[in-house]
Write a structure and sequence with these properties.
Two copies of one chain form a homodimer. Chain A is an alpha/beta fold and 401 residues long. The first copy, chain A, is 32% helix and 20% strand. The first copy, chain A, has 14 helices and 14 strands. The longest helix of chain A is centred in the C-terminal third of the chain and has 19 residues. Chains A and B meet through helix 1, strand 14 and helix 14 of A and helix 4, helix 5 and helix 13 of B.
Chain lengths: 401, 401
Amino acid sequence: MSNLELIKELSLTSPGKIVMLVIDGLGGLPNPATGKTELETARIPNLDNLAAGGICGLADPVAPGITPGSAPGHLALFGYDPIACNIGRGILEAIGIGLELQSGDVAARGNFCTVDSSGLVTDRRAGRIATEKCAELCKLLDGMSIDGVQISVRPVREHRFVVVFRGENLQTELTESDPQQTGLAPKQITAIHAIANGTANIINRFISQAKKILSNYHPANMILLRGFAKKPQFQTMQEIYKLKPVAIAVYPMYRGLAKLVGMAIAEAGTTLEDEFAALAQNYPKYDFFFLHVKWTDSAGEDGDFDRKVKVLEQVDAALPGLLALAPDVIVVAGDHSTPAVLKGHGWQPVPVLIHGRYCRPDGVKKFSEMAFISGGLGRLASTQIMPLAMANALKLAKFGA
Amino acid sequence: MSNLELIKELSLTSPGKIVMLVIDGLGGLPNPATGKTELETARIPNLDNLAAGGICGLADPVAPGITPGSAPGHLALFGYDPIACNIGRGILEAIGIGLELQSGDVAARGNFCTVDSSGLVTDRRAGRIATEKCAELCKLLDGMSIDGVQISVRPVREHRFVVVFRGENLQTELTESDPQQTGLAPKQITAIHAIANGTANIINRFISQAKKILSNYHPANMILLRGFAKKPQFQTMQEIYKLKPVAIAVYPMYRGLAKLVGMAIAEAGTTLEDEFAALAQNYPKYDFFFLHVKWTDSAGEDGDFDRKVKVLEQVDAALPGLLALAPDVIVVAGDHSTPAVLKGHGWQPVPVLIHGRYCRPDGVKKFSEMAFISGGLGRLASTQIMPLAMANALKLAKFGA
């Protein structure tokens, strides 16, 4: 029996409410100029107080040394095995731009690229055309129908787009068309299993038509497709935890991930203040709240240490609004670390805090990576956070007599 | 290979002796009035000394967030995977009252209940009749024989009893008779697999006869049966660890669990002092001693913080008797936490201490939950305690060359 199956057997409905505040890219590394991390630099008295009153630790989203993407990072926070529940790239890209997917749809990541007169790829990214140009070209390709399969094409950013094929009996056992280097022609899509022959044929015909349509749009005169995937079927958080969960997230990717695990989606507005207001407004209607703060991660990805510090201080300033609701259990965590000095996601474990009346105190007084090393949660897997939150909200029955 | 299979391959006989002192429900939570846990409140100089001389940590019996019952809590301490080795409820109830079970026996939990003149359940617990009344009614039902199956009925407490069916080819693939709500008739027992048809028939005939016998004993005029189970077949501790293990426990449940893993059962008397005397008396005859102290858990379950503190102090006062035997390895642990503020078992990790000449020192000076966060054992699974105790007693060979 997997851990999640055990939790499913033991979970029960209780009045307790859980707020999980996910500060994206929460953990950091020291600024070489000061020797202090983003958290150690920020003035965050409310988070410090919460740490002093709760139980703290450091969580590995996937495993020590593994740098997680946003999807595995969040799935682990929701209690799902992030390796077993890996989501196909095409689907992630579609979710990221807020596309609604149905269960038989096949999604793929697309690149506009440049081919020469012999059809050989000279630039796999079509000179990184502007996002506006990408949107314009996607409109040319969008809305085709081939053998009853409807094809949607939507822009992502620069040369990147998403294609969704919707129809009967579409399969994903397909090779990719990207030759992965210049000087070669785009590859034919072929079926890895015979069951996908029909799908390969339709996709190749789509690519041929796209080539014709784009012939006068140099440098974006061809497309490359990869990452064919269907929407995964996960057990929902309602089924596993018997919760009524809702997501409050400004960015489509996180709303999409939340939807995959069964969460309702609240109107979250566009700012941190909007999100905390949405939390208060939705508080009576649900018992699990996933509140996602994106801007810490964006600052970390940009390598902007000071901006990440500022966002942390903004989150801290908004915290009293959350505390005023007096949730039975508060979880503060991150999906992964995004140290500004790395300018990207990192493998470093992520600070996690659980606050509730049945948390056993530890000696931690500061909300920081170093202080949390000595926390009472110790070093844990991110997948263990949900069972702990459930237990602290008195939502798990005893195992065995 | 499971961890236990590895240990079995490596275990060897040596003169070293291991005493495992299990303080039931050991871990606690702060008293809101003082901010101190039961362990932090108790005067326990001998345990503090042992902690200062040993290596300490915090153990999860099943997994973080999971509140263990006594059976999984103890099986984990004995090194058995508590999820794989889950024990059926009927068997646990029988063990709890000290019933001797044979391998083909089927045991079930029973309730006396009240039915109206149409046979519909009006009270699933028969008004919680007194334990004495329960014992009297059990005698009326005890000793039947149906198609050669011998049926024993023994009181547990209030309306609860145990039935054991003993005969050829009895099976447990059965539905339960408890309708789980009032206003419904007790359900017929049916076989989930055809193999259990005969068993279902016998049990239904037993229930019919019980109904006739009890007809004039309102409110206890009917019975409900559930949790049909057979005694599990575990590898013994002799087989796995090559130990000669003995249990010293006042309460039948813990003797029963010890017997399931092959331990001999010592005459333990009725008090803490009796138990420590039994340890000394049996010391020459065995090399592994499971010494079980129940009263910490009972006090915690009653929500009696001060009584739990007092029992801890009594254990501490008895400790010199154990130390005088100079065991090669002393383990002090709990099967689970029972914080008085929770009035029941908790999910919080359990303090564990290992003392022996080859333990690497840590900086811990106090026997407390918070002090043990910084212990050298760190955060571990309770199933890892036995391998550590074995290693410290020089009872495990090297793995690989």
